[in-house]
Write a structure and sequence with these properties.
The chain has 4 helices and 18 strands. The chain has 263 residues and is an alpha+beta fold. It folds into 2 domains: 37-152, OB fold (Dihydrolipoamide Acetyltransferase, E2P) (Beta Barrel); 155-261, Lamin Tail domain (Immunoglobulin-like, Sandwich). The strands form 5 sheets. Strands 1-2-3-6-5 form a 5-stranded mixed β-barrel. Strands 9-10-15-16 form a 4-stranded mixed β-sheet, with no helix packed on it. The longest helix has 31 residues, at 3-33. The chain is elongated.
């Protein structure tokens, strides 16, 4: 056998060995590049925070009601039923930890994204930190929830729910303007405005007159002379320029309207 054929056979055997081991090599490479983790969930703190080992894990992309708010208990019970006492996969975004030292992760169980399920079931609204591979799925889950009227997505049946329009949401000036398009006055007492996170404004004993508008402005000034301006105090800002969502709810926590902005 001449030198040329020896080289051909050697190349053939090398290629054969590579082909036989490609799947193993590919799997090893994927495993090496995969930054996800696995962990056993032993407790639900609330609807969007769980305990894994000695760490708190905040579910990415969502926000659930706080204690004392409508559907707080239901959201917590939902997450308990889904993943407590089970091992889940943690997939991380751009930031692995938040400012409180909690891990930020999507929790995957048997191929199901638990974060998205909380939104789909109406126990969470979307809360987008950064656009990632799950952003569109989260949006679709919220739209599905609204279409089905599930829990937090249930439409208000209040007489004035169809009267109130969002006329303007000015992120730069941190101002929201609502308009009453009906021919009668609307009492908005205990109605609330909320962003994607925890910032919340509750109307006190306020009546929005027929065919009139009201501005809700974020700021720290002590008073306004104009009775058609309400001050959202104790907040430096509410609406973020990188993307946010406004939710207006009636006094029973039912959804009057919502508007996604700058995303």
């Amino acid at each position: 056998m001449n030198k040329r054929w020896e080289i051909v056979l050697l190349v053939f055997f090398v290629l054969l060995l590579f082909a036989l081991n490609y799947n193993n090599l590919n799997g090893m490479a994927e495993k090496f590049l995969d930054e996800s983790e696995e962990g056993f969930v032993w407790r639900a703190v609330d609807g969007d925070t769980v305990k894994i080992g000695n760490e708190s894990v905040r579910l990415l992309g969502i926000n659930t009601p706080e204690k004392g708010e409508f559907y707080y208990a239901e959201a917590k019970k939902s997450i308990e039923g889904l993943i407590v006492n089970k091992t889940v996969k943690l997939e991380f975004g751009n930031d692995k930890y938040d400012k409180y030292g909690r891990k930020l992760a999507y929790l995957i169980l048997d191929g199901v994204n638990v974060n998205i399920e909380q939104v789909r079931k109406g126990f969470a609204n979307i809360f987008i930190y950064d656009n990632d591979e799950y952003t569109e799925e989260l949006k679709n889950a919220w739209n599905e929830c609204v279409a089905n009227g599930e829990n937090l997505c249930e439409a208000s049946k209040e007489k004035c729910a169809g009267c109130i329009e969002l006329k303007e949401l000015d992120v730069k000036n941190q101002e929201v303007i609502f308009y009453n398009n009906c021919s009668f006055d609307c009492n908005l007492q205990n109605w609330s405005i909320k962003d994607e996170g925890r910032k919340k404004f509750v109307f006190s004993n306020f009546v929005l007159m027929k065919n009139k508008e009201v501005s809700v402005i974020v700021g720290n000034e002590s008073s306004f002379e104009d009775e058609d301006i309400l001050l959202w105090e104790d907040e430096e800002y509410v609406w973020t320029s990188t993307g946010d969502t406004l939710f207006l709810r009636d006094d029973n926590g039912k959804l009057v309207l919502w508007r996604e902005i700058n995303r």
